[in-house]
Amino acid sequence: MWLRTSLILTLFLTLGACMKEETQKPEYTLVIHGGAGTITRDKLTPEKEAEIRGELNAALAAGEAILKDGGTALDAITAAIQVMENSPNFNAGRGAVFTAEGKNELDSSIMDGRTLDAGAVSGVKNIKNPILLARAVMEKSPHVMMMGTGAEKFAATQGIETADDAYFHTDYRWGQYEDAKTKKNGPLLDHDGKAEEEAPKGAMNDDPLNGDYKFGTVGAVALDKQGSLAAGTSTGGMTYKMHGRVGDSPIIGAGTYANNKSCAVSATGHGEFFIRATVARNVCALMEYSGKSLQQAADRIVMQELVEMGGDGGIIAVDKDGNYAMPFNTAGMFRGHVTSLEAAKVGIYKD
Amino acid sequence: MWLRTSLILTLFLTLGACMKEETQKPEYTLVIHGGAGTITRDKLTPEKEAEIRGELNAALAAGEAILKDGGTALDAITAAIQVMENSPNFNAGRGAVFTAEGKNELDSSIMDGRTLDAGAVSGVKNIKNPILLARAVMEKSPHVMMMGTGAEKFAATQGIETADDAYFHTDYRWGQYEDAKTKKNGPLLDHDGKAEEEAPKGAMNDDPLNGDYKFGTVGAVALDKQGSLAAGTSTGGMTYKMHGRVGDSPIIGAGTYANNKSCAVSATGHGEFFIRATVARNVCALMEYSGKSLQQAADRIVMQELVEMGGDGGIIAVDKDGNYAMPFNTAGMFRGHVTSLEAAKVGIYKD
Fold first, then answer.
1. Domains along chain A?
2. Which of A138, A303, B30, B99 could form a disulfide with B222 if both were Cys (CB 3.0 to 4.6 A apart)?
3. Sign of the dihedral defined by the CA atoms of residues B276, B280, B283, B289, in that order
4. ipTM, two decimals
C-alpha cells in the first residue's frame, strides 16, 4: 500500500517536473558580453554607465529582432556584435586598443553549431567589422582561419568594408597606449612568462572600460527558433600587446565554440589562459561527455579551473534548450541577455 | 559451492589482470608522425621508402635517448621534431610546401602537459626549426601564440636560427607548387567553402611525400619517466594555400594538446576539419570526462567524427599510463613509436 502510494506520488512529481521543464523552454535566447575586468561602481560615471547600458541594449535589440522573426542564431550574433564593434566603448572594432607598435590589430571568430562551420581572422588592420570578415572566411573561403595581410587581401576580394586609422583612433585608448609605453621596460616585455606580472602598472589596471589592461572583447551566443546555436567573438586584444600576439578570441575552441549537440560559448579574459584551458570547447565537452548542466560546466571552468590557473575573465554561454550562463571571476563583466520568455536585461557588476 | 568456486576464480583472474596491467606499464613512450595521406606501396620507390624509414628511426632515437636518461617529454618531442624539420622529405621546416605566393609559411605549436603551458607560431618565414620558436614563445614570452612578422621579430630577440629561402627550396616541392599554379583557377581558389573540392587535380593527389596536396605535417607526443606528457606539431601547411591561411597545427586544442590528466595528441590532416572538430582537445576530453580508453577516444574522433565530416588525416596520441594510439583514416601515415618495453618501430601503410 505504502509502496503503491509512493510510486503514484513519484509519477505525479515526475510528470509535474516534465511539464514545468516544457513550459520553461524559450523559443530563442541571445546573450552578449562587452568585456570583463575590474569594473566597479566607483569607476564609472553615471553618464558613461548609462551610455554603455544603452549600447548593450541596442546590441540585444538588433539580435533579438532577427531571432523573433525566425532568423538564424548566426545572423543574430553577427548583428549584435556589429553594434558593439561600432561603439568606441568596447575593445573591438572602432574601440580597439593599440599594440606596442601603436597599431590596432583585430581578431575575430564565428562558429555555426549546425554544421560546425567556423571562420576566424587574426591580426587584421583597418577592417571596420572583423566579425563580418570572420564570417566571410567561413562562408566564402576554403579555409577556417586567416591572418594578417593575407586575410586583408581576402577581405578586399569580398568587398569587406575598411576604415582608416583615424576611425580606430580614440583619445581614450591612445591614452592607455601612452600610459603603457612609459612603462615599456616594465614587466609586460620581460618575457618572463609570468602573465600575472605583465600588467603595465598604474591607471590602466583600474580602467573600467578597458576591463583591465589585458581584457576587453565583445561576443554573442544565441539559440534560434530552429534549435540551432551560434557563437561569435571580436576583440582588439591586449593594450600594448606585442606585435603579432594572437589571443583566444580568434581561436575556435578557446574564445569561441558552438555545437548543436551541447552549447555555444564566447569568452572574454586573459587570452593566454583561455587558450591553454581550451575554455569554450571545454565547457561544451563537460556538457556533452559528463552530463553536466550548462551552469555547472561554465562555473567549473570559469570559477574553478581558470581561477586555479590565475586566468581572469568570464564567458557567456547558451545551450540547446535555451538555458544561459554568464559566469565571470572578475569584479564585473559588461553583459546582457534576452529570451522569448524574458525581457532584455543588461548587467555590469556582480550584483 | 559453485558460487564460491567462481568467486575465487574471478578473484584470481582479476589479480592476474591487475599484475599483467602493472608489468605492462612502460616507463616512457614516444610516438611520432611525418604526415598522413594517400601513401601506398606503389607510390614509393624502395630507395625513398628506406630513406624515410631511416629518418623516422633517427627522430625516434633522438627522442628516446632523452627519455631513457630521465629527460622530459618536452625535450624528447622537441628533439624528435627537429630531426624531421631538418629533412627535406617532410612538409615542415626544410621540406615545407609553397603557398599560392610561392613562399614558405611555417606553423608550429607545443604544449607541456604538466602545467598546460603552451606556445605556438603561425605564418613565420625563414625560421629553420619552427618548433624551437614555438617553445621560445611558451618559455620566454608572456604570450601563447604569435604570428607572422611579429613572431619573426620575437625570434630575433631570442637568437632563434634562421635560414634563407634557398634552404627551404626543394625542386620537389616547387614542382608541386608549379603543378598547383597551372590550376590556379581551379577549385582551390573558388572559395566555395567545399573543402573536399579544393584539390588541385592531378599528380599532387597521388603524391605520397606530400601526403595529399593538403597534408604533410610532423609531430611527436611523449610520456616521460616522471609521468609527464608533452605534444608538439610543425608544418608547412597546404601546398598553394592562400597567403595567411592558418591550419590546425599551431592551434592549441586542434593540432596539438597535452594534459597530464588525460593524454597528449599531435594531429596531421586537412586542418580546416581538425580545427572545427577541436581534434586534439576532443580526444583528451573523451578520456577525461567519459572514461574512454585512449584507443577508443582516438578512434571515435579520427575514424568516426572526422570521417563523417569528410576530414582526412590521423593523429598520434599517448596517455598518462604510456598507452599509445596512431589511428588514421587515409591510406597511410608516416609514423613511429618506441617505449621502455618495445623496440622502436616505424610504419607507413595500413598494414
1. 27-349 (3.60.20.30)
2. B30
3. negative
4. 0.87
